[in-house]
Design the sequence.
């Protein structure tokens, strides 16, 4: 009898331990208690502006130690950005890990650095009913059915068009799910003074070619880490290069060439953006452009505009790599303050937090709430999100390589536009020179200004 009682007691205690490990008890974080959280983010100022100050309005005794990570603006670091990022986690062991790419999340997950949030969500009765299901589904897909992080925001690229110019030229408006080839064919119907397509991202035309390659699911890299080589001399890349070069040569494509750093709102409004000036028929850009377009007081030139989902690949017309889950926070597996970490993640992904920020000028909120917005966000999630291999490709490359490679590719494109060589010669040269530099670039740190001279 006593043996049975002891066994029963052991079984019950075992179940309690298992239950505790699975966080079935409702996490209890008192607003009166002092606690500190170590959090990864871009910068301390950005973190407090976007999240920390709102959380401390609910938990005034909470403090934060911010582990800053490098920005993706061609930081000149030794080794790859991925190595730098993972090294920061290994060294700092933050309570809350920040990722901005599904591929980064995969790496963090494969290192067993984060815990699933599903049991916290269940124990807290935390409703995700108003959370954008397309975003949640992708997070679950990366986590093999589990939720390893939540992001309060996301962003997406769409095709913007100038209705006024389309009406002037008598050309039908673009539609959802057009391929990039179809878009550039439409662009050819406009004159050079009012180009059909304008690209305002950094490092054009390199970024434009790479963007269309990402739409097609193409990669410029081949091979295992440490043995990568540049692969561009293929029929798929040749088609993209031909379209872009012909478009630049004819004047149908115009671009802004800006090296280093990021475009700011002042840059957008400085009169150097042909689309915002009403002088270009189409552009591809993030959600932030719709904020400027929908606030007439920010525009120097007023025009009617619209936006559609795309461009897409003919092979995969329902998907995009350019929907970014850009503020994903997860709990570090060895954190000693997991409940407090969850309370932060729970708060910044809540309806309450979303309502505190009714209209974000540069990003979309993951909570689908009624807001006083001038833009219908539905177009930004009309396409299914596929893994962002193009961004991850950049993260794998040695520091300093991208600036060097962009300059190399842009010079070859200039020669193509001027008829100084063939596309086959250009692609072969870019492959050879790019691969040669890549294989010796691991320990090299190039300041981009040196490459320009």
Sequence:
């Amino acid at each position: 009898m006593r043996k049975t009682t002891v066994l029963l007691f052991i079984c019950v205690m075992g179940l309690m331990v298992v239950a505790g490990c699975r966080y079935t008890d409702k996490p209890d974080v008192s607003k009166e208690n002092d606690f500190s959280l170590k959090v990864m983010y871009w910068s301390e100022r950005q973190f407090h502006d976007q999240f920390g100050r709102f959380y401390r309005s609910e938990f005034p005794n909470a403090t934060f130690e911010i582990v800053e990570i490098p920005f993706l603006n061609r930081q000149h670091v030794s080794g790859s950005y991925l190595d730098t990022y993972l090294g920061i986690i290994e060294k700092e062991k933050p309570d809350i890990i920040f990722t901005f790419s599904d591929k980064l999340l995969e790496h963090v997950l494969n290192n067993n650095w984060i815990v699933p949030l599903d049991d916290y969500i269940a124990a807290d009765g935390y409703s995700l009913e108003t959370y954008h299901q397309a975003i949640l589904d992708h997070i679950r897909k990366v986590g093999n059915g589990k939720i390893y992080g939540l992001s309060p925001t996301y962003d997406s690229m769409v095709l913007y068009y100038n209705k006024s110019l389309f009406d002037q030229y008598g050309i039908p408006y673009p539609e959802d799910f057009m391929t990039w080839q179809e878009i550039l064919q439409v662009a050819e119907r406009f004159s050079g003074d009012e180009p059909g397509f304008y690209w305002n991202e950094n490092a054009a035309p390199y970024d434009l070619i790479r963007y269309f390659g990402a739409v097609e699911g193409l990669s410029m890299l081949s091979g295992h880490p440490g043995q990568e080589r540049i692969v561009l001399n293929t029929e798929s890349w040749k088609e993209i290069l031909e379209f872009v070069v012909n478009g630049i040569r004819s004047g149908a494509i115009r671009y802004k060439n800006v090296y280093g750093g990021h475009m700011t709102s002042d840059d957008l409004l400085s009169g150097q953006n042909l689309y915002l000036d009403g002088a270009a028929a189409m552009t591809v850009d993030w959600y932030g452009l719709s904020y400027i377009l929908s606030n007439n007081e920010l525009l120097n030139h007023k025009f009617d505009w619209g936006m559609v989902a795309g461009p897409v690949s003919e092979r995969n017309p329902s998907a995009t790599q350019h929907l970014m889950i850009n503020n994903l926070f997860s709990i570090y597996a060895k954190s000693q303050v997991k409940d407090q970490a969850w309370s932060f993640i729970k708060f910044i992904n809540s309806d309450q937090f979303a309502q505190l920020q009714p209209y974000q000028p540069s990003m979309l909120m993951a909570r689908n709430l009624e807001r006083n917005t001038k833009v219908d966000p539905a177009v930004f999630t009309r396409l299914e999100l596929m893994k962002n291999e193009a961004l991850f490709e950049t993260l794998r490359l040695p520091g300093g390589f991208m600036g060097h490679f962009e300059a190399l590719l842009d010079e070859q494109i200039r020669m193509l536009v001027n008829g100084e060589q063939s596309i086959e010669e250009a692609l072969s040269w870019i492959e050879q020179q790019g691969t040669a530099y890549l294989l010796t670039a691991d320990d090299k740190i190039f300041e981009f200004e040196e490459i320009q001279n």
User: Anything to note?
Assistant: The first strand starts at residue 35 and ends at 41. The first helix runs from residue 2 to 21. The domain at 158-320 is CATH 3.40.190.10 (D-Maltodextrin-Binding Protein; domain 2). The chain is about 40% helix and 15% strand.
